[in-house]
Structure formats: C-alpha cells, structure tokens
Write a structure and sequence with these properties.
Blueprint: H1 3-39, H2 41-44, H3 53-58, H4 66-69, H5 73-82, H6 96-117
Length: 118
C-alpha cells in the first residue's frame, strides 16, 4: 500500500472514531426519548422534573437534579430494572439496550435544563 493510500485509510479511521460515537449517542438519545415518553413521562414529566399529578403524589424524583445526575449509570440501571420506592420495576419489559438508552436520555435532561436557563 502506498503512502497516499495509508494516509487516506488512517484519515477514514480517525473520522470514524471521532464521528461515529456522536452519531450513535444521538440515535440512542432519540430512542431513549421515545422510551421515556412511553414509560416515564406520566410520573417524571416531559422535562424530567417529576412535576405531574402522579409524580407529585408519588414523590417522583427530579431526574435533572444533582441527586439523580450524580448516580452512576449502574445505579440508575438498577433502579430502572428493579424499581425503587414507588417506582415499579421495568426490567421485565425493557432489555439491556433499552435501559441504557433511557440512562443516556436521563443524562441529557440536565443538559437541556441548563441550556434553557442560558
């Protein structure tokens, strides 16, 4: 392989390493939002604040807040899978990938809130 082809191949590889994760996380976030809308909005609200009639009655967490955002992905995964307090378990209805997509979306909620405050 000549030098030009090697440089081109390396450039393509670097582009894939830089661009592909952003494309994947954008797709995951979109899928996560769909799951969130279907499974979580009634209690946690569209913005993740927990300010719905059901959420207020059950004490739903503000998913945008520091308490939730400081949790590890593993801790959030466990809460979604097994439930916590008044939150029912979703492990039997969601697979690992779907739970991870929800986690990605929950992580994005605090960023959206910060962007709205600016």
């Amino acid at each position: 392989m000549n030098t030009r082809k090697k440089v081109f191949a390396i450039s393509l590889l670097l582009a894939a390493v830089i661009v592909l994760p952003g494309v994947l996380s954008a797709g995951q976030s979109a899928d996560g939002q769909k799951l969130f809308d279907a499974k979580c909005v009634r209690c946690h609200a569209k913005d993740g604040s927990g300010k719905t009639a059901i959420g207020s009655a059950l004490g739903a967490a503000d998913l945008r807040g520091a308490v939730v955002q400081k949790l590890t992905d593993a801790q959030i995964y466990t809460q979604i899978e097994n439930g916590k307090g008044n939150m029912p378990p979703f492990g039997s209805g969601l697979n690992k990938q779907q739970i991870n997509e929800l986690i990605s979306y929950v992580r994005s909620l605090s960023k959206k809130q910060a962007a709205r405050k600016k």
